[in-house]
UniProtKB/TrEMBL annotation, chain A:
CDD domains according to UniProt: TRAPPC2L
Membership in a protein family: Belongs to the TRAPP small subunits family. Sedlin subfamily.
Underlying gene: Trappc2l
Gene Ontology biological-process entries: endoplasmic reticulum to Golgi vesicle-mediated transport
Protein name, UniProt field: Trafficking protein particle complex subunit 2-like protein
Organism: Heterocephalus glaber (Naked mole rat)
First-listed, main subcellular location of the protein, grouped into a coarse class: cytoplasm
A cellular component annotation (GO) from this entry: perinuclear region of cytoplasm
Localization per record: Cytoplasm, Perinuclear region
UniProtKB/TrEMBL annotation, chain B:
Protein name stated in the entry: RalBP1-associated Eps domain-containing protein 1
Gene Ontology molecular function terms on file: calcium ion binding; SH3 domain binding
Compositional bias per record (Basic and acidic residues), positions renumbered to this chain: 671-681, 708-721
Lineage: Eukaryota, Metazoa, Chordata, Craniata, Vertebrata
Comp. bias intervals (Pro residues): 544-554
Native source organism of the sequence: Heterocephalus glaber (Naked mole rat)
Length: 118, 796
């Protein structure tokens, strides 16, 4: 529970950084490069990566700093998969945007991704 | 025991029950536990049950043999009918209704009992007969023709089902079909089409219980799952356990059928083609689904939008979460709309869920939309997730055959590959270096064949590249712009790979690489043995456009040209030009070749000019020496022209344009040189060798061509040698300058003429050079802009 709270807090604060990056971009065109925001900020334990979709939906990923094997490309691909799964969830007419995502497929994808990284 | 006479119906019913209890498949003895369960379900008081058991002899024997069982059942019927339990009542009571076993799970049994007793049909009674989940069993005992059981709708049946009319649609014909079936007494287990999906929605609640009860009666194997399971979500364990029990307990199982309609469990049980395929949709079901589809979307090849589908399936009263999961399973192409196949799959899943089946994690194969054939697969692959999927409905929709499992299996592969493609394209668009990009090409190779084909000019560029490679390796200078160096080599590799790949790579490669086009647009240069190292850089396509005559050396860097000149000078003049080799000669070659005037003077002048150039740094633009050259040249022009100096001048003239070409940035210098040359030409001694002008024309031009390279100054050994050859030829063709004074006038006039000709030539040269210069500058600007654009991303 403690950890969860901590992560929630970290993600929350990283939102500010994301907003900052978005506003700094200022470009009209949006491409894959811009979607991926990269390392938002590192803390002593974790690194926080950001990604924003075309519709301004933000993905924040927190990884352990000790996981040095994680390269930028892998993070990018993970965000890409997240994005794809998210759009699949969105396509579901039974899903109300804003709800907590309860899609099994989505959860499976996320879990498999996390397992793969660890 | 007492003789037991059973009616046919009773006989059948009892044997069914016996087999139900006979989980050990002994066919002789039933399990006590099961029997007790059954008796409890009979809703008789316990003492009555005990009495029955005693009467039938089980307590004596300690087990229930078939006869005991039958007797017991008969006694149950007796008891239920209200008759006192007597042994003799077994046979005495006539027209005894079949024993009713009522329990929460056994409603069906009672119904079945009633149905056995009477053949009357209740038109409305589908509801109870929803086929049980596969786990429950679709066993059907071989001997029993379930047909007779079908019409279990009798008025006195406790049909929990309300009138079947669902809010939606209830195929009114289905009861009739049932009736028909009931009349049949086909002995065998004939496959029977489902009697229509029937009204689903309203009776669903009852259906669950009904199906299980039916199962209990008919399947004779695994006990119906607790009712809770029906509403539980993804409890795969119960389902799987049911399934595992199924084979063990099934005696005589022809088919397993799932779900679907609220028709009799019997028919449904019979229907499935294989035990392992509980998700197969029967034709009847499919027809029903298609009808439903039509109500929403008249066009069978069209889509049902997500919102309409949502409304429709919400009527089934399943939880939203389950509906969401069903949607995820059935919307195969993830487009937010349902094709006919997808709709049928979704409907089937809903019905299954309603009947207590747990939703699978993955779409079962038989439910996968059969819309891909191999070509479509390719297309779909190209457009992952696109509605290009609409090609599917065009295919024979209603016939759902398990015929294309392989295609369905390829679908996820395609999905993956499409992901690969996505990756590929994303990578290609990233600002990664070429080397990385190359590594990405290989994995995408098998799929790129399907990728949108992109036109690519392979041949010329390939040849070019190879030539360039050759030349480049032989060159002394290294290309200052390394990306350009790498790119051609990469491209040459890529040429061997897919064209699509090449295109993508070409795209990425051509970041600043505008010359990919010009790269390929110089076929004429293929034949040339001179390196075109820089021609492809495409700085000035105009220059490469006019095909130079073969003898013309290809444009190279000014350095190379200067090198040539230097070497030429060294060879011919014997002068020392050591330092010049590595330096771009800044002195534009003097166009007045023939300067009959003071060739001797030229030579020292030239030498000086060259020396001055050598002293300058390679990139420097020593304009003064130019001026100096020119001024000196002018002076010299006035003087007599020497043979040797004539040669010198010619070479120098060549050097000049070459050197001019060396520095694209040396526009000023070039301009000045041009002006100077013009002046020189004007002031040149009339002893210009007229012949020299003509042959001079080619040499300056090819030399000028080297200007085309924007910034590379690669030495061009071959060019040098060729140029020297040309020069030598030119020089040889020039007549010696007349020295005799006596012919001065004529000579002077001749030289004037020649000079004028050279003048015009030089003027043309000048204009061309200036044009080249402009192009080079433009390219430079564009490159700088690109650099600026790329710079911010270096932070990412």
């Amino acid at each position: 529970m403690e950890n969860e709270l901590k992560f929630h807090y970290m993600v929350h604060t990283s939102l500010d950084v994301v907003d900052e990056k978005i506003s700094a971009m200022g470009k009209a065109l949006v491409d894959q490069r811009e979607l991926y925001l990269g390392l938002l900020y590192p803390t002593e334990d974790y690194k926080v990566y950001g990604y924003v979709t075309n519709s301004k939906v933000k993905f924040v990923m927190v990884v352990d700093s000790s996981n040095t094997a994680l390269r930028d490309n892998e993070i990018r691909s993970m965000f890409r998969k997240l994005h794809n799964s998210y759009t699949d969830v969105m396509c579901n007419p039974f899903y109300n945007p804003g709800d907590r995502i309860q899609s099994r497929v989505f959860d499976n994808m996320v879990t498999s991704m996390m397992i793969q990284v660890c | 025991m007492e003789g037991l006479t059973l009616s046919d119906a009773e006989q059948k019913y009892y044997s069914d029950l016996f087999s139900y209890c006979d989980i050990e498949s002994t066919k002789k003895v039933v399990v006590n536990g099961r029997v007790l369960e059954l008796f409890r379900a009979a809703q008789l008081p316990n003492d009555v049950v005990l009495q029955i058991m005693e009467l039938c002899g089980a307590t004596r024997l300690g087990y229930f043999g078939r006869s005991q069982f039958y007797i017991a059942l008969k006694l149950v019927a007796v008891a239920q009918s209200g008759f006192p339990l007597r042994v003799e009542s077994i046979n005495t009571v006539k027209d005894l209704p079949l024993p009713r076993f009522v329990a929460s799970k056994n409603e069906q049994e009672s119904r079945h009992a009633a149905s056995y007793s009477s053949d009357s049909e209740n038109q409305g009674s589908y509801s109870g007969v929803i086929p049980p989940p596969p786990g429950r069993g679709q066993v059907k005992k071989g001997s029993i023709s379930h047909d007779t059981v079908q019409p279990r709708a009798s008025a006195d049946q406790q049909e929990p089902a309300s009138p079947i009319v669902s809010p939606q649609q209830s195929p009114p014909t289905s009861p009739h079909t049932w009736r028909k079936h009931n009349r049949h007494s086909s002995g065998g287990n004939s496959e029977r089409p489902l009697a229509g999906p029937g009204p689903f929605w309203s009776p669903f609640g009852e259906a669950q219980s009904g199906s299980s009860a039916g199962d209990a009666v008919w399947s004779g194997h695994s006990p119906p799952p607790p009712q809770e399971n029906w509403v539980s979500f993804a409890d795969t364990p119960p389902t799987s356990s049911l399934l595992t029990m199924h084979p063990a307990s099934v005696q005589d199982q022809t088919t397993v059928r799932t779900v679907a309609s609220a028709t009799t469990a019997n028919e449904i049980r019979r229907q499935s083609s294989s035990y392992d395929d509980p998700w197969k949709i029967t034709d009847e079901q499919r027809q029903y689904y298609i009808n439903q589809f039509k109500t929403i979307q008249p066009d069978l090849n069209g889509f049902i939008p997500g919102s309409a589908a949502k409304e429709f399936f919400t009527k089934s009263k399943l939880p939203i979460l389950e509906l969401s999961h069903i949607w995820e399973l059935s919307d195969f192409d993830k487009d937010g709309a349902l094709t006919l196949d997808e709709f049928c799959a979704a409907f089937h899943l809903v019905v299954a869920r309603k009947n207590g089946y747990d939703l699978p994690e993955k779409l079962p194969e038989s439910l996968m939309p059969k819309l891909i054939d191999l070509e479509d697969a390719a297309d779909v692959g190209d457009q992952p997730g696109e509605v290009g999927y609409s090609g599917s409905p065009a295919e024979a929709p209603p016939s759902k055959s398990p015929s294309m499992p392989s295609l369905n299996q390829t679908w996820p592969e395609l999905n993956q590959s499409s992901e690969q493609w996505e990756t590929f394209s994303e990578r290609s668009s990233s600002s990664q270096t070429l080397t990385q990009f190359d590594s990405n090409i290989a994995p995408a190779d098998p799929d790129t064949a399907i990728v949108h084909p992109v036109p690519i000019r392979m041949t010329p560029s390939k040849i070019h590249m190879q030539e360039m490679e050759l030349k480049r390796t032989s060159s002394d200078h290294t290309n200052p712009t390394s990306p350009l160096l790498v790119k051609p080599s990469d491209l040459s590799e890529e040429n061997k790979i897919n064209s699509a790949v090449k295109f993508a790579s070409g795209n990425t490669v051509a970041d600043g690489y505008s010359s990919s086009d010009s790269f390929t647009s110089d076929p004429e240069q293929i034949g040339s043995n001179v390196t075109r190292q820089r021609s492809h850089s495409g700085t000035s396509p105009d220059n490469t456009a006019p095909p130079p005559p073969p003898p013309r050396p290809q444009p190279s860097h000014s350095r190379s040209s200067s090198l040539d000149m230097n070497r030429t000078f060294t060879v011919t003049t014997g002068q020392q030009q050591a330092g010049v080799v590595a330096q771009p000669p800044a002195v534009p070659p003097r166009p007045q070749p023939s300067q009959a005037s003071g060739p001797v003077v030229h030579r020292p002048v030239d030498a000086d000019g060259l020396m001055t150039h050598t002293s300058t740094s390679p990139q420097q633009i020593p304009e003064q020496p130019n001026f100096a050259d020119f001024s000196q040249f002018e002076v010299l022009a006035a003087s007599n022209v020497n043979e040797e100096q004539d040669n010198e001048a010619e070479k120098h003239a060549e050097v000049l344009p070459v050197e001019k070409a060396s520095d694209p940035a040396s526009s000023l210098r070039v301009a000045k040189a041009d002006s100077k040359t013009e002046e020189k030409a004007a002031a040149s001694v009339p002893a210009n060798v007229s012949k020299g002008t003509a042959p001079l024309a080619p040499p300056p031009k090819p030399v000028r061509r080297r200007l085309k390279s924007e910034d590379e100054l690669r030495p061009d050994v071959d060019e040098h040698t060729q140029k020297t050859g040309v020069l030598a030829a030119v020089l040889a063709s020039q007549p010696s300058i007349p020295r005799s004074v006596g012919k001065d006038k004529k000579a002077i006039q001749a030289s004037i003429r020649r000079n004028k000709e050279t003048n015009t030539v030089l003027a043309r040269l000048n204009s061309e050079l200036q044009q080249q210069l402009k192009d080079v500058l433009e390219e430079r600007i564009s490159l700088e802009v690109q650099l600026e654009q790329l710079r911010p991303f270096s932070h990412l």
